[in-house]
């Protein structure tokens, strides 16, 4: 309550209601009338609430009987919910010389004042929470203030679910806009020509690569190249280019691919350079304008499979990393098949090498050469990682003859050991497969920096790496999936407790050394009773030593480079293809997508298949409607989640359940559609997974979970999609007895989280034959970025099956499809999804 005394009273008026200066209506009565109207408006729709903006006058006052005092008191309230833009407008009488808005109480807000208006984005809350704002007008004689109360209610998923569809377009709910900003082939320097998209383009080392995947946004200071973790309109997008669509990349396909010998070197150069990572500056035209990428930014960078990298951590310099290129095993070249990612707490990007094994050639006879050289166990290792003998290597890169005879950029993809060359690997590339399968840290702000391969996090088909919550004084954890059928979930716990000052270090890669080079790698075991353990991959413990019959471990480096073999030895739980990991920023629970598993059966029938178990409880046939072969086993995948003991990243035990099981709506509710999905939220093959950031309503109170699909099972009905959920927590559901109907009849007890119901909705459907992947947002959550990977993947240059993104505007277009980054904004400026 504010009072003032002066000769010429300032009278406040409400922006959209005429004031009545006569004495027949008191100010209090006026306010009551306005309040009624506002309540009606506020109840109409989300859009109304967000936009009604004007007039939150709350004063109910009465003229002082002396005529020279005005008293303004707290009064009416207005309702909103977390994530909404709230705009308040008041007016002052013409004799006011200045006005201001200030916050009086409630959760701290970032206020934007414009004239007599103020706006803010409501944070999210667990219970209705009042925010009081004061509007003050002054002149030489004094000032007067009135207060407005805004009640912030807990956020809901207030969008209409997008219907499943097979259109050649990115479909978002009404009230949202999707815009394409960075496409395969787009030039990254000012001197590179626009992409012709007809197979004639070259120089992918200075263009966007193909098949965009994991991605993070790093805010950039408005003035230059320094980090600014709060900038919502200028930043660096760092994204993976997982693999290539060769059928669209050249004028008429890959020359020589059918004869087994690649003959056009330029094609191979292009294919190699189209892999890797992009760092690209993006800017927004003001707070509400369009996003675009900055072609000429000096921060733009491509990391390709040819970029020099350094090894870091326990495997650095180990004999297993010796090659012609690095005789001391300390450096390597590039990164490949980069799938998911992580944004590290100190401002670096982590990219993860997934299906790197497929690029290697290994001729028949290689195993005998290794055995003769005293390296028998390498055959066990190579086989366990999917590099069997007689492998030709994706795209046959090693078969091309370079114009420069001294070049090893193609030869390196041939891992065949030569009997006539040094057994230690320094004369050929027999050890090159050990230079891949790592998490790779990149400093996005320094284009000249050398990426570091973090060997302490183990070697596998790394999908992604998600940091747990960082808390000062607590050792941080990094959660990872190994995407293969029946592979494991891992976490790495730093040896060093988190220091808050490391969120803004001067040397980011050195900070990475601090947290990622020393610590312990663990693998997960899921027990039937809903508990679980993290089993340490430590040389010398629990049989991880030279006495291991299958693979005698020689050192900690050996354990890390053969994490799969170590996990086998420890009895880790084989999972249905662990893809992305995500951590709820409020409670620290970790979610992991298990995308599907064609080798999950009721009863295992041979090596390579697995019986159902409580954590992977389904094996069935997913009947299609188009006559194509149905997916079998765990056909539609699920999302497991775990809660660490004491909610601590350092814990070695946890409890778990399944957040949601993918399924067709209407399918067998007892054994398949265990989460009760309906037409608004049914999905298959979850892959990309991410929680909203705690810097905005999407990551507060009840954080948003973004689920992206990479599906081949439900494609008779729909293209791949993005859903948004608002999950509960581990243990909020029940147990269900589930019986398999594929590969034998067996029964297990599933731990099923509370049915998501309306707290999971389909937000987006992608174009034809795509995967929806990669997700990140600005700190304010008002712009989210996703990637569309491999649109039209079933076609090629002669049979184009998608024209996206050319088709984005109207649903039809011409030309070859291109993977691309898409930015999504809410038309009223609110937090996406709320
Ligand atoms: Fe590249 Fe496991 O998805
Ligand atoms: Ca993936
Ligand atoms: Ca996938
Ligand atoms: Ca894919």
Structure description:
The two termini are 34 Å apart. Helix 5 (366-372) runs antiparallel to helix 6 (376-384). The protein has a 9-stranded antiparallel β-sheet. Strands 19-18-23-22-21-20 form a 6-stranded mixed β-sheet, with helices on one face. The chain has 9 helices and 47 strands. By secondary structure, it is mostly beta strands.
Quick gist of this model?
The chain has 834 residues and is mainly β. Helix content is 9%, strand content 31%.
Strands, helices and their partners?
Layout: E1 2-5, E2 12-14, H1 27-42, H2 46-51, E3 62-63, E4 69-72, E5 77-81, E6 85-92, E7 98-105, E8 112-114, E9 117-121, E10 129-139, E11 142-153, E12 176-183, E13 212-219, E14 234-241, H3 246-249, H4 265-273, E15 276-284, E16 291-293, E17 301-303, E18 308-312, E19 331-333, E20 338-343, E21 349-353, H5 366-372, H6 376-384, E22 439-442, E23 452-454, E24 462-467, E25 477-482, E26 485-487, E27 489-494, H7 508-516, E28 519-526, E29 531-536, H8 556-561, H9 563-570, E30 575-576, E31 578-583, E32 590-594, E33 600-601, E34 610-611, E35 620-622, E36 631-633, E37 638-644, E38 653-661, E39 686-691, E40 705-709, E41 721-725, E42 734-739, E43 747-752, E44 760-765, E45 771-777, E46 783-789, E47 820-826
Helix pairs in contact: 5-6
Bound molecules: MU-OXO-diiron and calcium ion (3 copies).
One calcium ion (CA) binds at residues 710, 771, 789-790.
